[in-house]
Amino acid sequence: MDTELLSNTFVDLADTLVADFDVIDFLQMLTDRSVRLLSASATAVVLAGPDGELRVAAASSEPAGLVELFQIKHGQGPCLDCFRTGRPVMAADLQGPGQRWPQFADAAVSVGFRNVQALPMRLRDEVIGTLNLFTVAPGGLDETGLRVGRALADVATIGLLQERSFRHQEALAEQLQGALNSRIIIEQAKGKLAERLSIDMDLAFRMLRDYARNTNQRLTDVAHNFVGSATADFPPAARQPYRG
Question: pTM, whole model, 2 decimals?
Answer without folding.
Answer: 0.69
